[in-house]
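Customer escalation, tier 2.

The customer says the design service returned an amino acid string that "doesn't look like it belongs to this structure." They asked us to rerun it and document both sides in this ticket. The original structure tokens are below, unchanged.
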């Protein structure tokens, strides 16, 4: 499926341009004869069988433009390239072809975003805010807002993050990321583990971020969250754009195709 060339709407302000983007992973494996892990290790040690390199073409010639104020949902089955595309927009993966151009600094928020598990939630708020460029004074001003938004159980803000459930950790990461205005905010599954109350607050916060700054990209398997939060949806299939447009239309087409 050949992807269309990128076309920019002159009446709107582009903030992310993805132009003919290709992302290729190189995976190394022992290859050759089958056997136990010990046998494979001995073959490598004896240089009897050099590791083979396989290429995985995760994103294939993707092109689109995101405009200031967009909230774009990325949907697709597992392995369709959603998270890879987010990492490429964030500048974490080098293109094998094409390119990504952004007006401002993209910030990637994922469920596995790196906070210090051995430190308390309180210390992680401070470190996270400072890492995003907030001053110590701004961090102190935002602290209570972050704690309230994360809605942790009483006292848990003083506990190490290693004691948090996945939902508590996801809420705190989102609360920290949402404490400042981002040029481009990339959210990978961060809302998937929240309850209905948290999803409502997250939706309101994303709308606020859209009003105050650039664009928001959201990856979530919960299609209801995507439809309620985004003004546009891109459906990825085997690393290519299958459909791009109105959330209700794209989600309906995706649901029909994947339910067969």
């Amino acid at each position: 499926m050949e992807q269309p060339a990128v076309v920019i709407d002159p009446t709107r302000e582009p903030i992310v341009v993805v132009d003919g983007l290709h992302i290729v992973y190189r995976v190394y494996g022992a290859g050759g004869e089958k056997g136990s892990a010990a046998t494979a290790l001995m073959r490598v040690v004896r240089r009897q069988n050099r590791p083979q390199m396989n290429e995985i073409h995760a994103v294939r010639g993707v092109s689109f433009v995101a405009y200031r104020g967009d909230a774009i949902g990325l949907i697709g089955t597992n392995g369709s390239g959603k998270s890879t595309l987010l990492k490429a927009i964030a500048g974490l993966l080098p293109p094998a072809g094409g390119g990504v151009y952004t007006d401002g600094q993209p910030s990637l928020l994922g469920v596995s975003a790196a906070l210090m598990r051995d430190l308390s939630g309180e210390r992680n708020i401070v470190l996270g805010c400072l890492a995003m460029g907030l001053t110590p004074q701004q961090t102190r001003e935002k602290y209570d807002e972050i704690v309230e938004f994360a809605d942790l159980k009483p006292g848990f803000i003083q506990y190490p993050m290693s004691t948090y459930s996945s939902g508590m950790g996801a809420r705190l990461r989102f609360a920290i990321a949402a404490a400042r205005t981002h040029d481009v905010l990339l959210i990978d599954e961060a809302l998937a583990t929240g309850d209905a109350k948290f999803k409502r607050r997250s939706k309101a916060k994303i709308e606020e971020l859209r009003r105050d700054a650039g664009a928001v990209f959201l990856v979530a398997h919960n299609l209801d969250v995507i439809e309620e939060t985004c003004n546009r949806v891109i459906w990825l299939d085997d690393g290519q754009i299958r459909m791009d447009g109105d959330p209700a239309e794209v989600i309906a087409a995706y649901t029909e195709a994947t339910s067969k």
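Tier 2 assessment: The sequence is consistent with the input. The chain has a mean pLDDT of 85. The beta strands are 14-29, 52-67, 71-75, 97-102, 106-110, 184-188, 215-219, 232-237, 240-245. Sent an explanation to the customer and offered a walkthrough call.
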